[in-house]
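Folding Query — how this chain folds
Tokens — whole-number codes for backbone shape
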Amino acid sequence: MTDKNLDTLFAQLGGAIDAPTGGVVPVIQPATTFVRDTNNVPTSPHHLYSRDDDDLVRLAEDLLCQAEGGEAALLFPSGMAAVAALLRTVPTGGRIVLQSDIYWGTTKWTRDYCARRNVTLDEVDLANTEARDAVTGKADVVWAETPSNPYLKSVDIAACAALAKSLGAVLCVDSTAATPVISNPLKHGADYVMHSATKGINGHSDVLAGLLVTAEAASKRWTDIRADRHDAGAVLSPFAAWLLIRGMRTMPLRVERMCASAMTVAEAMEAHGAVSHVLYPGLASDPGYDIAKRQMSGGFGSLLSIRVAGGRQAALAAIGRLKLFKRATSLGGVESLVEHRHTIEDTVPDDLLRLSVGIENADDLIGDLVQALEG
């Protein structure tokens, strides 16, 4: 097996079995604490207290670390917990360079944190070469998201890594929309990669989880993040880890199908007269196509956005007529979802519908969109 054969890695769980029984599915150990012998020595040297000592969490971290090509990985109880764990390493008086127009949860939390801690925050369109090149001075963290949510902008990771180095900062890339299957930011120069594992990694809309993977496990920042997770108790439960691993076993297969369907849907929407614009990095017409093609392998993700030609009212009417796409907030699950993002985030154009393409038949999804757009 090579580092490219993620389908084998995840299907086999890296060779993990339940040793006492030979079971091919790992078992859940719900215990929160573990006994010591009469000499006060832990029965198992790797099991003291479940905050850091859960074999399922360790297994998932190891598999995802291998998939991203990193040195170490940490799971958290949500994607935002992972975001916060990294950005909390920026001290009072520090500086964060944050990509603009990304996932609203990251933007809001970072703004609030910077205001509380007297941290300078610069929001920059890192997909724009001129805007990126204009950033100077010193910083602690550069945060990028590619493809971005909900605008699907592709950001040049290598260029952002060079920027971070020039600022004396580290680069963290939110690669949630890509998953480890089709993009590995560490291989393009990022120092950290973050995922909301709730999304494509789990893929079944039934687990909250977050992930950080580092290129350098010996760094002080990673040591601080690990200590913060332990001390603050931002850990994943055994059952959540079990569900996450169950989802991960089919991740390469799911992502392959979802990417192919998303591409088919994007092409169909680009050709439809009721759609003024399609935002998807896999389209040759997309401004970030060349970057996406260089950084992504095997597909361009399951997330896309369309802008409805008739404006707000036409977009709301269309979303109301959809029958297969579920009107819900999330992405990366086996079921296709749609969201009128402006309803939640009023800076997003009110004619924009964000689509998360699942594993359903692509022709059925296109048919649903066409009937909704045509009324």
Observations:
- Residues 198 and 208 are 5 Å apart (CA to CA).
- The domain at 6-248 is CATH 3.40.640.10 (Aspartate Aminotransferase; domain 2).
- The first strand starts at residue 72 and ends at 76.
- The chain has a mean pLDDT of 96.
